[in-house]
Design goal:
single chain, 36% strand, three-stranded antiparallel β-sheet, 2 domains
């Protein structure tokens, strides 16, 4: 399984995953270990390669209440839809609509007026993330927000 998280080791705490987003079809994890950013799992009742092949290419889900999030941390889905502002001017930069994981750092897709700016999620750019308020403050590098900035 390819864990979509910063630290695949986070997955080791899970005992149950789901084959649907609604959490109706639970799958019990017998064993799991991490190997090169992949989670190698054995599911109860899946005892052959043909049975395991049924899960190839499928998205599996976890209950967010079972995922440990450190203080000051967040899940990607918590960021989606957040309003993005310039940390110094307060100017609205757009809405975070997607996150790409690149390995080195995540890249945030900021949408405004149908245009997308790509912003590296690094400490030099990300000033504040307030999940409760649905607000992100950035200090973009000059020219970084050109795609969306010219629409005001």
């Amino acid at each position: 399984m390819e864990p979509w998280c910063d630290a695949p080791e986070t997955m080791l705490t899970l005992k149950t995953i789901y084959s649907d987003a609604d959490g109706r079809n639970a799958l019990t994890i017998s064993t799991m270990r991490i190997h090169k950013r992949l989670a190698l799992i054995k599911l109860e009742g899946v005892d052959s390669i043909p049975e395991a092949e049924e899960f190839r290419g499928r998205i599996l889900f976890a209950d967010r209440r079972n995922i440990p999030v450190p203080d000051g941390g967040w899940l990607i889905q918590d960021l989606l839809g957040a309003a993005v502002f310039h940390a110094d001017t307060g100017k609205t930069l757009g809405t975070l609509c997607e996150v790409s994981t690149t390995g080195a750092n995540d890249v945030w897709h900021i949408e405004k007026h149908g245009k997308i700016a790509l912003v590296p999620a690094v400490d030099e750019v990300v000033v504040n993330v307030d999940i409760e308020a649905g607000r992100i403050e950035l200090r973009p590098i000059p020219g970084m927000m050109e795609e969306v900035d010219n629409e005001d």
